[in-house]
Amino acid sequence: MKKSFIGALAVSTMLTPVAAMAQTEIQFWHAFTGRLGELVAAQVEEFNASQDDYTVVQTHKGNYSETLNAGIAAFRAGEQPHILMVFEVGTATMMAAKGAIRPVHEVMGESGATFDPDAYIGAVKGYYTSTDGDMLSLPFNSSTPVLWVNRDAMEAAGVDPDTDLSTWQNVGTTLDALKAGGEDCPLVTAWQSWIHLENLSAYHDVPFASKDNGFAGVDTELMLNGEAQVAHLSAMGQWAKDGKFIYTGRRNEGGANFRAGECALFTESSAGYAGIKAEAEFDFDVRPLPYWEGVGNAPQNTIIGGASLWVMEGHEVEEYKGAGTFLSYLSSSEVQAKWHQDTGYLPITTEAGEATRAAGFYDENPGTDVAVIQMTTNQPTANSKGLRLGSFDQIRGIIDEELEGIWSGDKTAQEAMDSAKERGDALLRRFEAANR
Q1: Tens of pLDDT along 7-46?
Q2: Does residue 176 register a pLDDT over 50?
Q3: Which residue among 134, 217, 227, 291 is the one 20 to 30 A from 245 at the CA level?
């Protein structure tokens, strides 16, 4: 027994230095599944293998809304992760969460990690930057809406797949031809509020909300019931009535229909590239999001969707160093270029986009630079910088409900948007009262 005890003591003593050198663990919560989940897991594995000081543990916490709610609940319980993925409409909520977040510019500065705010493309950086010019969260998966074209379906309906689809006027004419040619699903969409209201407004340089779409203060109100928005939704409502626009759901349910080859045209995120490339058994291409010729200042620039990475308060100094090191790794040109090429998300830095072009990726994969061009050709205006509205996840739910009233023919576009404004403004007033 004595010999056994001494042996065990020796082993324990030998292990002590190893335990003292244990890697600092960084918890990273995200909302990705499927192919995107696999790619995030690969990024984490590569980072962990690249150094010996930190171990990042990635955990899927549900969809965007569920991940945000999980992060809020965890903070209240004192069990928050170090890094939390939050979709773009949760930005105002995170900014208002006093004491819950540590601005990324502080984390990067304190960690000594490589960080140059000017390296990020303007339309992406501006969404997550304070009025003082400080970056609050790190842009990660930033996308913008585009038009996907099933070339085989177009040909089958007797429509030239190279027809000009740059304007909604031309799209309307094409939908007529597709329907006449026997196409059962001429047009389908994903993320209807994001594409057909939020981005529609930005692309035509008309306000979605007052106070520079919420960037200039919380005392904002919705302006989504304006002439441009109502005219677009009226046209779509008529297309729905005529069977030219098929409504499949509020999120990305239409993606399955398009990837299966069931629809000719699809308005969706540029990040649809990963799934479409992997699943589509038809010839497809990607075009810029259409605009209404003669309306506003179109085409201006579309705005981003996707998410950014927020660093939560309540952790140790060494853990923040690890968080900063990991975020710096994710922003590096090589990692960003690969992420952009694999997913269709925008390269968040100018250097990553230039590296992708220099590598010949855009030449080999025509159309994959459409989103980049669409976002960078024009400097963002007060109407096209993005949206920063409180309770916006709930407001989107209201908008979705009202849009469904248009598609079903139960409401006119004006009635639906007037109602969305009234209901949404009530939530904005509550948010304002709580965050004065």
Answers
A1: 333 344 344 444 445 799 999 999 999 888 999 999 999 9
A2: yes
A3: 227
- Report how far residue 236's alpha carbon sits from residue 256's, in angstroms, rounded to the nearest whole number: 21
The model carries a pTM of 0.88
Position of tokens 């599944």?
33
pLDDT for 14 equals 45
Q: Is the pLDDT confidence value at 100 over 50?
A: yes
The upper half-sphere exposure of residue 407, i.e. CA atoms within 13 Å in the direction of its Cβ, equals 19
User: Using one digit for the tens of pLDDT, what is the confidence trace for 300-320?
Assistant: 999 989 999 999 999 999 999
Output the DSSP codes for 216-283: T-S---B-TTSHHHHHHHHHHHHHHHTTSB----SSSHHHHHHHTT--SEEEEEGGGHHHHHHH--S-
What are all long-range contacts of 56-60, with beta carbons under 8 Å and residues at least 24 apart?
56/25, 56/26, 56/27, 56/28, 56/322, 56/326, 57/25, 57/26, 57/27, 57/28, 58/28, 58/29, 58/30, 59/27, 59/28, 59/29, 59/30, 60/29, 60/30, 60/31, 60/32, 60/33
Distance separating alpha carbons of residues 140 and 331, to the nearest angstrom: 8
Q: Distance between CA 284 and CA 268 in Å, rounded?
A: 14
Q: CA of 32: how far to CAs of 58, 95, 362, in Å?
A: 10, 23, 25
